[in-house]
Specification:
The complex is a heterodimer.
Chain A lengths: L3 H19 L3 H5 L2 E11 H5 L7 E3 L2 H13 L7 E6 L3 E5 L2 E13 L5 E16 L2 E11 L3 E3 L7
Parallel strand pairs in A: 1-7
Antiparallel strand pairs in A: 1-2, 3-5, 4-5, 5-6, 6-7
Chain B lengths: L14 E3 L1 H4 L1 H12 L5 E5 L8 E7 L2 E7 L5 E5 L14 E3 L3 E2 L6 E2 L5 E3 L27 E5 L2 E5 L7 H5 L1 H10 L4 E11 L3 H8 L5 H4 L1 H6 L7 E6 L6 E6 L8 H4 L26 E8 L3 E6 L2 E11 L2 E11 L4 H10 L12 H12 L7 E3 L18 H14 L12
Antiparallel strand pairs in B: 1-19, 2-11, 3-4, 3-6, 4-5, 7-8, 8-9, 10-11, 12-18, 13-14, 14-15, 15-16, 16-17, 17-18
The chains are: A alpha+beta, B alpha+beta.
Protein name (chain A): Aromatic-ring-hydroxylating dioxygenase subunit beta
Keywords (chain A): Aromatic hydrocarbons catabolism, Dioxygenase, Oxidoreductase
GO molecular function (chain A): dioxygenase activity
């Protein structure tokens, strides 16, 4: 049974997660995952039909770091600012760790101040305490917005 | 303005008026002359509708279409718009149905698109209902002619059109037989909404020159190899294009060698599994992107196999609908490998995401100058044939020459001579 302080600590982690993306601190964002941490973005449309095809899949923290390095060094994408809005958390205590769910809305704003709703969906996370720090063992982003506007570069 | 009023200074389409990408009147005419014209449109894959009654609702240009398997075991396709008052008949994007019934007034159609049920056709107690001469046979859903090749479904609205294999021509028939050489399984879908004209994407696909310049992932992390050879092949009318790259046949094709970074480049991925290629075809091609006029692409990028269908939304917006697949005899390890490599392509693809940005920055920047022209001379001028290198955009011109033919435009002629 999660206690209020657990909610608070998990809330802090989710807040850090969103803030590091919104503030373009992606190298620090990578460090919120365990070394074997998995990051997956998949559409609800595929999940509902039993298809495993993701929009983005990183099977460990090295692959997450590679994504970020590729964004920094190689990829060309729309110049924008991200802004996450997260819901209250749904928290379950399991033998594997904390199962945490949250709804998100992600707005993107371009250089001349036009904002659009980029993606809406749900996080389904497995979070565990490692050396006194809460980290993502896996984070699955289930996007309702299966029709990705423009392209998918920065993480959701 | 009228699609025929634009200036095409060169007969070989080395200049393309920007208005072709921005003008709503051009878009309206394309719906008739291109998507409902003498072309075979890609519809779906048979593996998506294996059983009687299985259906998918898709779009051909702006036209909503139901593709399903009827009781005769064959694939049928017809317009998903009720013959009564124009409502969408089948509202789900996929499923299994015994018939398709419009929710508005319950007109029911069988799996071949024939009208089979009209409630209250004779009214109630002799009052109301339809006139006595109403004939169900005259109110079918508009049917497409359908042909399949190795499980790939194509359809056309054209009354007279060469058979599918003739339309595709040898190179592209062989490519489909190569990609669909044995039963496939669907891995899932991706959708990408791009805020630009759909032809900026068909251009992009026929411009292998941008690959090593815009998509820097390959160069930065060593996917594009120095010993890689490539080029482009076209059909007899140069309307279709297949960009290809192959590994050197004389070299060892091991994973280790494939992931060797380029010389003078210190950047390496921490996890190279994304760069592994498992040879699965008897030939040396490790990249083939076959673009069929007008609306589809069959891609093999390493071990990612997918079909992309272009779905127009407006003159300034389209969707790329990606259908990823593998083979039914793939083992668990190959399944996982294909899912891992899907990171390379699609809206979030490490070697493809840039296309969305490239199209949008063109579409935005040309808005004010519809009478100005794009310059298309990489690969030379004149007639378009096979290309023996990747520093070319000539296949783009092949698309445009055929496009102009269908649209009733004569490039190089005085604008007023067009009609």
């Amino acid at each position: 049974m999660p206690m209020p302080e657990h909610y608070f600590e998990l809330q802090m982690l989710l807040d850090q997660y969103a803030r590091m993306i919104d503030e373009d601190r992606l190298e620090e964002w990578v460090e919120l995952f365990t070394p074997d941490g998995r990051y997956e973005i998949i559409s609800r449309e595929n999940l509902a039909q039993g298809f495993a095809l993701p929009l983005m899949l990183c099977e460990n923290r090295n692959q997450i770091a590679d994504r970020v390095m590729s964004l920094r060094e190689a990829n060309v994408y729309h110049i924008h600012t991200d802004r996450h809005i997260l819901s209250q958390l749904h928290v379950q205590s399991t033998a594997d760790g904390w199962r945490v769910g949250a709804n998100y809305a992600l707005f993107q704003t371009n250089q001349v101040g036009v904002s659009t709703l980029y993606s809406v969906g749900r996080y389904e996370d497995l979070i565990r305490e490692v050396d006194g720090r809460l980290l993502f063992v896996s984070k699955r982003v289930i996007v309702d917005t299966a029709a990705v506007p423009s392209l998918l570069a920065t993480p959701i | 303005m009228s699609p025929h009023d634009y200036q095409w200074p060169k007969a070989d389409c080395t200049r393309i008026p920007y208005g072709m990408y921005r003008d709503p009147d051009v878009y309206t005419l394309e719906q008739e002359k291109i998507f409902q014209g003498p072309v075979w449109n890609y519809l779906a894959l048979e593996a998506e509708i294996p059983n009687v009654g299985d259906f998918r609702t898709i779009e051909v240009g702006d036209i909503p279409v139901i593709v399903n398997r009827a009781r005769d075991g064959k694939v049928h396709a017809f317009v998903n718009r009720c013959a009564h008052r124009g409502a969408t008949v089948q509202r789900l994007i996929h499923g299994n149905a015994k018939s398709h019934v419009c929710c508005y007034h319950h007109w029911g159609y069988n799996l071949e698109g024939n009208l089979v049920g009209v409630p209250f056709a004779r009214g109630v107690e002799g009052k109301g209902g339809l006139p006595e001469d109403f004939d169900k046979k005259e109110h079918c859903l508009r049917k497409m002619r359908v042909e399949t090749l190795n499980g790939v479904i194509f359809g056309t609205f054209a009354q007279a059109l060469e058979p599918l294999e003739e339309f595709l021509d040898t190179t592209f028939v062989n490519q489909l037989k190569r990609l669909f050489n044995r039963p496939i399984k669907i891995l899932g879908y991706q959708r990408q909404r791009i805020h630009g004209n759909w032809k900026l994407y068909t251009d992009n696909l026929r411009d292998p020159n941008h690959g090593g310049l815009l998509h820097m992932f390959q160069i930065t992390f060593g996917i594009a190899r120095l010993n890689q050879t490539g080029g482009a092949m076209v059909d007899k009318k140069a309307r279709h294009n297949m960009s290809w790259a192959a590994q050197d046949m004389g070299k060892n094709n091991s994973d280790a060698e494939y992931s060797t970074p380029r010389e003078n480049n210190n950047l390496t991925l921490k996890d190279g599994s994304l760069l592994q290629y498992r040879k699965e075809f008897p030939d040396a091609y490790n990249l083939t992107i076959a673009s069929i006029f007008p609306n589809c692409i069959f891609q093999q990028i390493g071990n990612t196999l997918a079909v992309r269908q272009i779905r127009t939304k407006s003159v300034g917006e389209f969707e790329i609908f990606w259908t990823f697949y593998g083979y039914t005899d793939d083992d668990t390890s190959m399944d996982q490998h294909r899912l891992r490599l899907s990171n390379l392509v699609g809206p979030g693809g490490l070697v493809s995401m840039e296309d969305g940005e490239a199209i949008e920055i063109v579409h935005r920047a040309i808005a004010a100058d519809e009478d100005k022209h794009a310059f298309v001379e990489f690969g030379g001028r004149g007639p378009v044939g096979d290309q023996d290198n990747l520093v070319t955009e000539a296949p783009m011109r092949g698309f445009w020459m055929h496009y102009c033919e269908l649209m009733g435009i004569t490039p190089g002629a005085d604008a007023h001579a067009n009609a």
